[in-house]
């Protein structure tokens, strides 16, 4: 009897229930944060700590807005206040920028404060975004199929008039003749591009032949020299190149797109540098690009001294419909198409950029052995 009197008193029913409830809440798969009417955290379960990358024990008793100040900058800060003030349950999705995650949130108010249940739905949001992108691409393909004939009808008279003017006015000075030739070449390119868009939408590769990339680059250089602002200096270094098996119109589209982007990145002027050379990749470089069929490649670099690309979006620039340009000037399909064309040619594209210092795109096009010319300049490049 004496020993029994020393034993700890049995917990009350309420205490036992509270302890059992805590065990259950600690084990649920949703994050849970309970706050009082002064916005102090009175409970946070382990899953919430995992989601928010914080130690739950360190958050107890702290003001939730002081511990998560970034949340104040979102629209949901006011929504939580409305839930507590109006005592109305609310369900919504919230993006928390510091950890770059999406959460589905359910907020339940009561007289003692607010209970917030949340679940990480980042993967689901990413899948939804991919699905929407696929839908938009499908719509783009349908649209391209519908307008291809109309665009051809528009370009045909432009091409015909450019040819007629060259014959009708042979006395024009050399500069004017060059402009008419550029107009004719551009109209032909435009007609070819319309067909390429249709082929791209239908998933066909387009006809490929053995071509000299330097010829295409020289056309591009001539165009940019005649049309780009004089505040942009055009620099070129084009070596004798190996032949590649490619679609000339598609490569022209790639180079023009990158040059246009470079121009837009230098609104106050600068330098656009276009270089091309043969390269024989070493073993380390081939390991970085396991899909490369051969070590021999033609490397084309298009570099500018413009505003550069924010490091935070550098990995996103090739995504469809991603653009940092205003809606009326950018569709977000340019670099997506560029990468698609280069990839379909068995090559790859690398990009380096620093804010305020400029951007450099490097395109590697594989060369089959039968297209190499022993008389061409060959350089063995090593990459760190």
In short:
The chain has 384 residues and is of the alpha+beta class. The protein is built from twelve helices and twelve strands. Helix 7 packs antiparallel against helix 8 and helix 10 runs antiparallel to helix 12.
List keywords for this structure.
single chain; 384 residues; alpha+beta; Beta-Lactamase; Methane Monooxygenase Hydroxylase, Chain G, domain 1; Heat Shock Protein 90; 3 domains; 5-stranded antiparallel beta sheet; 5-stranded mixed beta sheet; 12 helices; 12 strands; disordered N terminus; disordered C terminus
Coarse shape: elongated
Number of helices: 12
The count of β-strands is 12
Which consecutive residue ranges, at least 5 long each, have pLDDT under 50?
Answer: 1-5, 374-384
pLDDT average, as an integer?
A: 80
**Structural class computed from helices and strand pairing:** alpha+beta
Radius of gyration from the alpha-carbon trace, in angstroms: 31 Å
Q: Which architecture of the largest domain per CATH?
A: 2-Layer Sandwich
Q: Could you name the CATH topology of the largest domain?
A: Heat Shock Protein 90
Proportion of beta-strand residues: 15-25%
Distance between the termini: 81 Å
Quaternary structure of the protein:
single chain
User: What share of residues is helical?
Assistant: 40-55%
**Largest sheet: number of strands, sense, barrel closure:** 5 strands, antiparallel
Secondary-structure element string: HHEEHHHHEEEHHEHEEHEHEHEE
Q: List the strand order in the largest sheet.
A: 2-1-5-4-3
Q: In the residues, how many domains can be counted?
A: 3
């Amino acid at each position: 009897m004496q020993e029994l009197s020393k034993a700890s008193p049995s917990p009350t029913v309420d205490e036992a229930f509270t302890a059992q409830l805590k065990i259950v809440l600690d084990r649920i798969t949703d994050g849970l944060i309970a706050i009082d009417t002064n916005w102090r955290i009175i409970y946070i379960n382990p899953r919430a700590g995992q989601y928010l990358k914080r130690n739950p024990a360190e958050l107890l008793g702290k003001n939730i807005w002081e511990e998560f100040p970034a949340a104040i900058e979102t629209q949901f800060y006011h929504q939580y206040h409305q839930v507590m003030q109006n005592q109305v349950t609310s369900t919504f999705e919230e993006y928390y920028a510091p950890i770059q995650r999406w959460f589905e949130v359910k907020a339940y108010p009561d007289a003692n404060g607010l209970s917030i249940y949340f679940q990480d739905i980042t993967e689901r949001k990413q899948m939804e975004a991919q699905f929407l992108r696929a839908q938009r691409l499908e719509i783009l393909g349908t649209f391209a199929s519908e307008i291809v004939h109309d665009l051809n009808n528009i370009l045909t008279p432009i091409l015909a008039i450019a040819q007629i003017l060259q014959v009708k006015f042979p006395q024009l000075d050399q500069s004017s003749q060059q402009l008419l030739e550029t107009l004719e070449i551009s109209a032909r390119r435009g007609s070819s591009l319309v067909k390429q868009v249709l082929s791209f939408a239908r998933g066909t590769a387009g006809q490929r032949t053995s071509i000299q990339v330097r010829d295409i680059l020289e056309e591009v250089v001539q165009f940019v020299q005649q049309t780009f602002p004089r505040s942009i200096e055009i620099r070129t270094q084009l070596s004798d190149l190996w032949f590649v098996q490619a679609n000339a119109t598609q490569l022209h589209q790639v180079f023009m797109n990158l040059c246009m982007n470079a121009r837009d990145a230098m609104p106050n002027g600068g330098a656009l540098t276009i270089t091309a050379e043969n390269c024989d990749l070493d073993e380390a470089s081939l390991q970085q690009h396991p899909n490369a069929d051969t070590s021999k490649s033609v490397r084309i670099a298009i570099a500018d001294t413009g505003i550069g690309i924010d490091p935070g979006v550098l990995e996103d620039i090739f995504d469809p419909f991603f653009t940092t340009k205003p809606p009326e000037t950018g569709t977000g399909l340019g670099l997506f198409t560029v990468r698609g064309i280069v990839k379909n040619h068995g090559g790859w594209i690398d990009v380096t950029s620093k804010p305020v210092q400029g951007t450099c795109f490097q395109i590697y096009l594989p060369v089959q052995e039968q297209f190499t010319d022993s008389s061409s300049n060959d350089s063995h490049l090593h990459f760190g």
